[in-house]
Write a structure and sequence with these properties.
The protein is an alpha+beta fold. 33% of the residues lie in helices and 16% in strands. The protein has a seven-stranded antiparallel beta sheet with strand order 6-5-4-3-2-1-7, with helices on both faces. Helix 1 runs parallel beside helix 5. The longest helix is centred in the middle third of the chain and has 17 residues. The chain is globular, with a radius of gyration of 16 Å. This is SMI1/KNR4 family protein.
C-alpha cells in the first residue's frame, strides 16, 4: 500500500509508536461492518493502531482489546445510542435523509463525549466518505468535506475549520504532538481500562 502524502505529514508532526501495532484482518472487520473501509483509515491504523493523539483524539481500530477503542464495538454501541435519540425526536445529521445512508464512528474526543463519524452514502466509494463531528452532549453535528486522515491532520496542525477541539489548543497547547497507544493509555493492568463505560 502506497503511503498517502497526508500520512507522511502526520508522521512528521506526530511520530507513531516505535513498535508496529498489531496487524488487522481487514477482510474480517469489513465483513462484520458490512462495508469496505477507506484506504486512509487503514493506513492510519496500520501505522498507529488504536490510541490517542495529544490525549484528545482517540483513534478506533478493529480488534482492539479495549472496547472504548474497538471499531466494531463502538459502531454497535453508537448505532444503539443514536437510534434511541432519534426515536425521541433528536434531529439526524445532514445526509442521513438519503435512503440507505448511515454513519460509522472512527474516532472520539476523549473527555467530551463527542464522536467523529464517516457519512456513508449508498453507491459512494469509501475513499469518498466525509467526516461528521457530533458534540455528544447535544444534538449538533458539524460536517467536514474531507476524509478522516486529512481531518485529523488539520486538527493537530490547527488548520481545521471547527468549533471544537478547544481543549487541545486552550489547555494542552502542545509544542510537540504525541501519540499514546490504547495499551499505554488504559494500562495493561486494567486500572485505566474503561471498557464498560460509555462516552455519553
Amino acid at each position: 500500500m502506497i503511503a498517502l502524502p497526508a500520512l507522511d505529514s502526520l508522521v512528521r508532526l506526530c511520530p507513531p509508536p516505535a513498535d508496529p501495532p498489531p496487524s488487522v484482518d481487514w477482510a474480517q472487520a469489513e465483513g462484520a461492518l458490512g462495508t469496505a473501509l477507506p484506504a486512509d483509515y487503514k493506513q492510519l491504523v496500520e501505522r498507529y493502531g488504536a490510541g490517542f493523539f495529544d490525549e484528545t483524539v482517540a483513534l478506533l481500530a478493529p480488534d482492539c482489546p479495549f472496547a472504548k477503542c474497538d471499531l466494531l464495538a463502538q459502531a454497535t454501541e453508537r448505532d444503539g445510542v443514536l437510534a434511541g435519540l432519534w426515536e425521541v425526536g433528536e434531529e439526524k445529521p445532514p445526509g442521513l435523509s438519503e435512503a440507505g445512508a448511515r454513519i460509522l464512528p472512527w474516532a472520539y474526543q476523549e473527555g467530551a463525549g463527542a464522536f467523529l463519524y464517516w457519512l456513508v452514502r449508498p453507491g459512494q466509494h469509501p475513499d469518498e466518505w466525509t467526516v461528521l463531528y457530533n458534540e455528544g452532549q447535544g444534538p449538533l453535528w458539524e460536517p467536514h468535506d474531507t476524509g478522516c486522515l486529512a481531518f485529523l491532520l488539520a486538527v493537530l496542525n490547527g488548520t481545521a475549520e471547527t468549533a471544537y477541539f478547544g481543549y487541545l489548543y486552550e489547555v494542552l497547547k502542545p509544542t510537540e504532538h504525541r501519540f499514546v497507544t490504547a495499551d499505554e493509555f488504559f494500562g495493561t493492568s486494567g486500572r485505566r481500562d474503561r471498557r464498560s463505560l460509555s462516552t455519553n
